[in-house]
Here is the input.
Amino acid sequence: MSDSTRAFLDMLSVQRGAAANTLAAYARDLAGAEAIIGNLADASRTDVARLGSEWASLAPSTVARKASALRQYFGFAFDEGWRSDDPSGGLPVPRTGRKLPKVLSHDAINALFERAEMEAASDRPAAVRLLALLELLYGSGLRASELVSLPIVALPRDAPLMTIKGKGDVSRMVPISERAREALARWLELRAGKPQSPFLFPSGTRNRGATGHLTRVRLFQMLKELAVRANLDPSGISPHVLRHAFATHLLEGGADLRMLQTLLGHADIATTQIYTHVDAARLVELVNSRHPLAGDARVD
Here is the structure.
């Protein structure tokens, strides 16, 4: 890997706070391009255009990701004065369609919670823990990785918000509903036998010596199993689907995109727009009912 590429990765880490996985992905894509056309700091537009044929067998989404990494690198190299031009115009521009996340209906949400609440009534640690996890996924819109790694000190004593450290170690405040607070209080009483673990959801519910936290894979499995017990299709249930339901249902209730962007921890509001899509009929109704001139004209 060239020195200029390493400098670019250092910038992503220091200035943008890129996560380790993000840095590793950029490093792989840039190193792969260098293996084909040599030092990127010296590559011509013709050299860069060769990448299109080399990537011809790759999926459009993969090509788009690689091209994005190179565009950012070349922009950085130009700004730093290492290059007098930006050859990224030679990169391929594949047409990609971003898939919208699966939509979970209000009825499905109710079925999940009814089953989880019924099971938690037994006060079994595993059942109470699952209810608390479900409340935070749907009630606060947390990512799976954020939820399973929550330190117990992140829970405020009285405040309705808690601090979450998300992608790139960027912190944000998220709400804790009264329902979630009640479920967490029940879980904390049962969790008292695990003082060694700094995590809110330690690995396992019986091994008192455990110091790690619940894994994302196990969380995924638990939700699938709950869906089956609630007579729902497990293929449509996952931590991300619940996070998406949180955003979509808030939007349906009148929340604005900027607020959702903050709650979800999205760096770009374009991401929020994709993950919080609503149907055209509701948008028309919103204009008709909320626009200042709604009483004078209606959109059909």
Summary: Residues 60-79 form the longest helix (20 residues). Confidence is low (pLDDT under 50) at residues 205-209. The first strand starts at residue 161 and ends at 165.
